[in-house]
Amino acid sequence: MKAPATLLLLALLGYLPASAQTTPQAVTSFVLVNADTDLDIMPLVSGDSINLVQMPTRNLNIRATTTPAAVGSVEFSLTGADTRDQTESLAPYALFSDAGGDYNAWTPAVGKYSLTATPYTEAGGAGTAGTALTITFKFINRTGIITAQAKPTVDRGLQAYPNPSADGHYQVVLPEAVQGSVHYTLLSAVGALVAEGTVPVAQATTLLPLDFSRQLPAAGLYYVRLQGKKLNAQLKLVRR
Length: 240
Fold this sequence. Notes:
- It is a single chain.
- By secondary structure, this protein is mainly beta.
- The chain has 2 domains: 26-140, Immunoglobulin-like (Sandwich); 159-239, Sandwich (Immunoglobulin-like), CATH 2.60.40.
- The protein contains 1 helix and 17 strands.
- The protein has one helix at 2-13, and strands at residues 26-34, 39-44, 48-51, 60-67, 73-80, 84-88, 93-94, 98-99, 102-103, 111-122, 126-129, 133-140, 159-161, 169-188, 193-211, 220-228, 231-239.
- Mean pLDDT is 85; it is low at 7-12, 16-21 and 145-153.
């Protein structure tokens, strides 16, 4: 009966052998990496649409973040326009591997993807599997100026605050309540597509929150086009 108490005491004192300790392992997130500079570009989350035209390079890689920071290994499985299976036993855990932190380059094909990463307690994908993470995303390649079928103008009835924004978060005050969903198209100062997506609006409201913290990493002037039921307008946004 003393053995469990002894093990507990050893664990509390930090003397319990590594083989007897159990720490839950999980892949918690993905990061898109510039393989030319080995610097992070942006977090990669499910539903992302990445415009290659807006990337600083076409030489990319994807890193998995784990908890704890060091695990036995991580197995990747990429399907879609490109496919790849990769097992990484040393951090950083990269889909297209690396050499001591120097990331190998991947030039992704345009199209849709699904990526799963699973942590394991031992090297080479051996041992016990932890909590995997799966995301879906796509790469697009859109150049030139975007024109609207029904050209909106800057609507003076719309206001955004704070504007300028220090972190890319805005609240748009609408002239009348909207409900359902609002499609947004985010454009650069010269009209090039930066990002697009949909904001779900569960209940009728005149206050529309927009989170462009990832889409607007650089300071500057942008335009956002909002389209929905009884809504077709455009306004200026400034990221400082």
